[in-house]
Write a structure and sequence with these properties.
The chain has 632 residues and is α+β, with helices and mostly antiparallel strands. It is built from ten helices and 31 strands. The protein starts with 6 loop residues before the first helix and ends with a strand.
Length: 632
């Protein structure tokens, strides 16, 4: 954190106008010191484009050469070095000022500035000691006092976190993905076999000499990531494309595209609202459609970035800048929901349980739909931007964020965590030593206490049972316990391929529909340990005029009885809707039991179960004449 950048120089300027009394009597030192106060505002730093504090540093250092115990010069140097984030030098001079005259400030503000620098550099014990000294001062500045108490809490947390580290062994993901260029912002499909990420590449055709593009890598049979290839040219442009989120099935992509230096050009065929916007593209067969500005009310004239799409494709989390030009930078996590007309609704900020007065910088909604990972500078952490996890409660609200702890988090900035569908592995970008150069993507085993609900998947092809022709079937996955619609998806319209996520510890009814066909039914009981693996199952769709029997896999009865269980009503209501849409259709309901027990009793039970289903359909408005019940 950094507070009140110009506080000390303003203090010195006022002091000089009131009194010429300093701790030194060396006139040359005083002259150099006063020139050092004025120097930053006379020129602009050519590199950083801010007041030239370096000129002030040179003069103040010369003042100290004339009198090393000139504590005012030490104090000024502390501020200037802190403005340049050269914290070690700032700490040196703040400590020198205090050692020469610990009572030089009636408010004790130097203890605050020293403690702040120590916290930023990970000296949590030093920060705690100096902040406690500061808050004990009766004359402490009220605003700084508030910030000091925050740093005290964070220092105490950090000391405990470092004393109780998590197991953390990051491994470079390999040369298939990482290069000498920076790689970051990974996103992964629910089967864990496709990673899409951002790479910053050299490009002499653009003003900055470099720009961001997307690359994609496939996991191979040799259990390594294959050589990454760039996305097509209608996705990658000479502008920046970054921070992608790929749908669970790998066939939809939402990403960030920013305008060029004119503020208007987002790339050929693209239009935006200003700054950086979210764009959408869809994969049809093997081709990605031309990106379009995300339809609906997500993008604004502000800056939208870091999208994360839920596995059901209906909820989008992202980062929006909420500060105005000239204000301290600030951003929050927002959420938008997909409307029935295909547009995204008005985005709303998450509650202050998640968002803080400081910057939230990245967000990830896990495929389980209930676990949120994000980066924040405002929650209790070790300094800079830390990673946190929050879990959605039964009331639909997000719980108190939990810091992922040390050494996942450090005094530096941690950002953009990506967690695998199983929840066992997490990915992040780092420029740590031993990589291929600059930022590389790494992975590590996520500690158990931070893991989401394990999520596997169901994939295959939808096709006509007779002609084998691929079909663009519509999928609906429903939680049998709650009746909640968990996933709505569709098969690829070109090749019929699909992939649907299945969070474990639930039982699901799956229905697949396509006009002119009977609906397909399947049951997934993910509460059983033996079922918690990925499923591959092709979906043959039977035409309405066919006499091929279709099973209803989500109709349940009490043991040895014909009483329908409540979870059966979800599928039977689907059948009611289907029959109402196809008024000329007549069907036979065939009841079955297992082969155990007396054959005659089983026959009677089968007939009674078929009768129960017919009775339910009739109660919902389906004519008795269209229904036949038969036990087998």
């Amino acid at each position: 954190m950094k507070y009140f950048v110009f506080f000390l120089s303003v203090f010195f300027a006022v002091s000089c106008s009131i009194s010429q009394r300093y701790s030194t009597t060396n006139k040359k030192a005083i002259k150099l010191f006063e020139e050092a106060i004025q120097a930053p505002n006379k020129t602009i730093d050519p590199v950083k484009r801010v007041p030239n504090f370096r000129a002030g540093i040179d003069l103040a250092e010369k003042a100290l050469e004339k009198d090393p115990r000139f504590w005012e010069a030490h104090l000024l140097l502390g501020e200037y070095y802190e403005n340049y984030r050269e914290y070690a030098s700032a700490i040196k001079h703040y400590e020198a000022a205090l050692s020469i005259n610990p009572l030089h400030s009636s408010t004790g503000s130097t203890f605050f500035f020293l403690g702040n620098c120590q916290f930023v550099t990970g000296d949590y014990k030093g920060a705690l000691k100096n902040m406690q000294t500061y808050v004990a001062n009766r004359n402490a500045n009220p605003q700084l006092l508030k910030e000091a108490n925050i740093i005290i809490n964070k220092s105490e947390f950090s000391i405990h976190a470092k004393a109780n580290p998590s197991k953390f062994n990051p491994i470079n993901i390999g040369s298939g993905i990482n290069t000498a260029d920076p790689e970051y912002f990974p996103t992964i499909t629910v089967d864990g076999n496709t990673i899409l990420f951002t790479r910053r590449i050299k490009d002499a055709s653009v003003p900055m000499g470099m720009q961001e593009d997307f690359f994609v890598s496939q996991y191979t049979k040799e259990k390594v990531w294959g050589k990454a290839v760039p996305m097509p040219k209608n996705i990658n442009t000479s502008n920046n494309e970054g921070a992608p989120t790929i749908a669970a099935d790998g066939r939809s992509l939402i990403f960030v595209a920013c305008a060029d230096e004119t503020g208007r050009n987002y790339g050929e065929g693209r239009e935006g609202w200003g700054s950086c916007d979210l764009f959408y593209t869809k994969k049809l067969g093997s081709r990605w459609t031309d990106p379009m500005n995300l339809p609906g009310k997500v993008n604004t004239s502000s800056w939208e970035s870091q999208p994360s799409l839920s596995a059901d494709g209906k909820t989008l989390y992202f980062i929006r800048r909420v500060s105005r030009p000239g204000e301290t930078p600030n951003s929050d996590i927002y959420v938008s929901h997909l409307q029935d007309d295909g547009n995204w609704g008005v985005a709303k900020p998450l509650s202050n349980v998640i968002n803080t007065p400081y910057m939230e910088e990245s967000v990830l909604i896990h495929p389980d739909g209930k676990t949120l990972y994000f980066a924040s500078r405002g929650h209790l952490g070790l300094g800079g931007s830390d990673l946190f996890v929050s879990r959605m409660g039964k009331d639909g609200n997000w719980g108190k964020p939990v810091n992922l702890g040390y050494p996942i988090n450090t005094e530096y900035d941690e950002n953009s965590l990506m967690v695998s569908p199983t929840g066992e592995i997490a990915f992040f970008a780092s420029d740590r030593e031993g990589g291929f150069g600059d930022l590389d993507i790494y992975y590590f085993e996520l500690p158990t206490e931070f893991r989401p609900t394990r999520t596997v998947y169901f994939d295959g092809i939808v096709f006509d049972a007779d002609s084998k022709m691929p079909l663009n079937g519509k999928f609906e996955l429903i939680d049998l316990l709650t009746g909640e619609q968990v996933i709505v998806s569709e098969a690829d319209r070109i090749n019929g391929q699909f992939m649907v996520s299945l969070p474990v510890n639930r039982e699901y009814a799956l229905n697949v529909t396509y006009p002119g066909y009977l609906f397909f039914s399947q049951n997934f009981n993910m509460t059983l340990p033996d079922n918690q693996d990925a499923f591959h199952m092709d979906v043959p769709m039977v035409a309405i005029n066919s006499e091929v029997p279709v099973s209803l896999k989500n109709v349940f009865f009490d043991l040895n009885a014909a009483t329908l269980r409540p979870e059966s009503f979800i599928e039977l209501n689907k059948l009611v809707d289907f029959l109402k849409k196809n008024q000329s259709l007549k069907i036979e309901l065939g009841g079955h039991t297992d082969t155990r027990g007396d054959a005659k009793a089983n026959q009677t039970l089968s007939q009674n179960r078929a009768n129960s289903v017919v009775d339910y359909l009739v109660s919902k408005g389906i004519s008795q004449e269209r229904l036949t019940a038969k036990g087998y």
